[in-house]
TrEMBL record:
Family matches, as InterPro entries: Kinase-like_dom_sf, Plant_Ser_Thr_Prot_Kinase, Prot_kinase_dom, Ser-Thr/Tyr_kinase_cat_dom
GO molecular function: ATP binding; protein kinase activity
GO cellular component: plasma membrane
Cellular location(s): Cell membrane
The protein's name: Protein kinase domain-containing protein
């Protein structure tokens, strides 16, 4: 489809694109609505519609704010050209809140994770794409510029689709914060309950889930964990300059001052990585343990039996022609570093990318793809 100005789309056109939001075109649910396949003429698109749901707190007017924020986000120059973010075609405000993406989807990552035809190579490729996307969002071009970073906050395998080329595309931005997005005043009386909206079930930071606290610093006080470690970052600025980790720490520290920090996304990435290697997703109706909780428990059990070398890779993936045992160990260890309970004990997202690039399947099979993104 030729590039055009983002346009307002009528409800009648949305119904035409999606065959009246038919079940045949339904892809999946996201936190505040549904995603559908669509066609504009012969061109395949994706339609995301905010619809009534009861699982998450949502007050009248909230989704209108989310739509406006998404229009701001996806038209920002640094964001709109990213290969793992969708290209916006248009939006609808009258009769139905929705956006239309120039995206030909196959299925959600949530559904792909359980598929037997989703290979080890494809799974590690998706893990790398997601890590690279988070690296772009978390670490701005100018790390001193505290206004140019983003935190997703509601990462969920259901919020990603794979396109016809098996590339990962993030399709929900309902809890994005930072960058060019306006801050919402959550202190209004009617919104007080919304402050506890901390992400998507199954992917919420374990520290937040257990303590109810959002942030490294709350009400100006440092939080001290049970281990007696300060859950904050020490920023050391050298006389002759600032090293990279310190620059990143400055961004994290500034983020923590208003409650949120990028490690919430790192934790959710760890959950997805476990899902990719162990073929597990959280399904509310099953009432099964969260994937992150399962991983921590299973890892401890297996380590007590086999020692330090522990793999959570599903047996069927171990039989994949591109699988190597060393990669299974490395991917498992990386996931566990992401799932650390205390935020500052987790691995930085740039280090996640570095570790994924060391995998044999990446070095041996994806080298051309990596070079193509440089």
């Amino acid at each position: 489809m030729e590039s055009k100005e983002i346009r307002e789309i009528s409800l009648e056109d949305l119904k035409l694109y999606t065959s009246n939001f038919s079940n045949e075109n339904f892809i999946g649910n996201f936190q505040f609505g549904k995603v559908f396949r669509g066609k504009i003429g012969d061109h395949h698109v994706t339609v995301k519609a905010w619809m009534h749901q009861t699982r998450y707190t949502c007050f009248p007017g909230d989704n209108e704010i989310r739509l406006q924020a998404e229009l701001i986000l996806l038209t920002e120059s640094r964001i709109k050209s990213h290969p793992n973010l969708p290209t916006l075609i248009g939006y609808c405000r009258q009769g139905q809140l929705a956006v239309v993406y120039d995206l030909d989807p196959i299925d959600t990552l949530h559904n792909f994770i359980l598929r037997d035809d989703f290979s080890w190579l494809e799974r590690m490729r998706i893990a790398l794409q997601l890590a690279c996307l988070l690296q772009t969002l978390h670490i701005p071009p100018d790390p001193i510029d505290e206004t140019n970073y983003y935190i997703v906050r509601n990462i969920d395998a259901a919020h990603f689709v794979l396109d016809k080329d098996c590339n990962l595309v993030l399709c929900d931005f309902g809890m994005f914060t930072g960058g060019s997005l306006p801050e919402i005043n959550w202190e209004k009386p009617r919104r007080k309950r919304c402050r506890r909206l901390c992400g998507c079930y199954g992917y919420i930071d374990a520290f937040i889930s257990r303590t109810g606290k959002v942030g490294l610093i709350e009400n100006g006080n440092e939080y001290v964990s049970k281990e007696g470690m300060h859950n904050s970052l020490v920023v050391v600025v050298g006389i002759n300059g600032i090293d990279f980790q310190t620059l990143y720490a400055i961004v994290v520290y500034k983020q923590s001052s208003f409650g949120w920090y990028p490690e919430v996304d790192v934790y959710a990435f760890g959950v997805i990585l476990v899902g990719l290697i162990a073929k597990k997703v959280y399904i509310v109706e099953d009432q099964a343990p969260y994937v992150g909780k399962w991983a921590k428990k299973e890892f401890a059990i297996r380590r007590s039996v086999s020692g330090e070398k522990v793999s959570l890779v599903h047996q069927s993936l171990e039989e994949d022609e591109d699988f190597e045992y060393a990669d299974g160990l490395a991917a498992t260890n990386l996931a566990m570093q992401c799932l650390e309970f205390v935020a500052h004990d987790r691995i930085f997202i740039d280090e996640v990318v570095e570790e994924l690039l060391k995998l044999h399947v990446v070095r041996d099979t994806l080298r051309l793809w990596i070079l193509g993104r440089l």
